[in-house]
Every structure is written in structure tokens, then in C-alpha cells.
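Predict the holo structure. Ligand: nickel (II) ion.
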Amino acid sequence: MSIQPIRLFGDPVLTTPALEVTTFDKELRTLVADLTETMHDAPGAGLAAPQIGVGLRVFVWDIDEFDGHLINPSLDLSEELQDGDEGCLSFPGLLYDTPRAFRAVAQGFNMHGEPVTIDGTELLARVLQHETDHLNGIVFIDRLLKKDRKEAMKEIRNSDWFGSEIAQGNTPVVKFSPHSMLGLGN
Ligand code: NI
């Protein structure tokens, strides 16, 4: 297992749809372990494979001390919505109210290729949606209300990390802890 550099917004891998996993092998289990270790180190509530530069449909989460992972997910969402602040390890320091479905039922596979269903509300539902979005090349600022997105883009342009060598695809290890308010970083 090893901690991987987290790609920041501006890196094309974050806006590129990831590919289905077809081989459930040792390499995949190493990817899940690396994602989990990198998420814990950050720390964050979730992390998707594209965020460490791997274009596969895999993500992990850590909620209430429980680690989970999901491969090739598909989501069913409730009509009922929730409000709440959301951040992302690929957007250091950003935290915006992000509308999400209150409940999400995710179907996919574990790292051994066995089908699993994850049924979550509130924070788990939020993380399932946020991470599945990552696999589709969608980032959380795409989910903001128009006025908030405009403000977020301004904050990003003014941030010291945006446009740095990291955002251009070079990835030195950078540590940050952007979600101290709620401990939510995914
Ligand atoms: Ni994220």
C-alpha cells in the first residue's frame, strides 16, 4: 500500500469519464488499498480513482470509522433532496452548499467481484453521489447553484494551488486539510 498524490482541479483526469473495471485481480485490490490509505492520510470522507490519476470506476469512503469501497457503481436516487456543505480533496479549501438527493442506493461490486448494494442516506448518500460523479468526469462545483458556482470559480482562480504545476499534470505530494469545519472531504 502507498499514499498517492491527489490530483487537483485543472488536471484533465478529473473531467474524463472513467472506464469500467473488467478484471478483479490483485492490481485492483492494491488500487483499493492505495485509495483507502490516501483518503485516510488526507484526510477525507471519500476518494475516487481518477483523483489519484487512475481512470477506473472505483471509489472508497470512510464514514463513522467505517471504510467502504465500490466498483462499477450505478445509483438510484430519491426525489427528496438534502442541503449541506460539501468539499473535495481535489479542491483544497473549497466548501459550498451542494444540493444532493437525500438517499442513494448504489449497486456495484466489491474488489472480489461480488455484487454489493450500498443503501445510504444523508452523508453516505452525499458521498456515493459525489464519488460516482467523479467516475463520470463530474466535479462537485458542477452541482452548485449558478451563483455559487460563479463564486467557486472565482475562489479557485484566486487560490494559490490553481494553475500550479500540480494542476498541469505534475503531481508532487501536497498535504492539506481543507475540511476542518465538518471533516467532510471527498
Ligand atoms: Ni471529490
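The chain has three helices and nine strands. The chain has one domain: 12-156.
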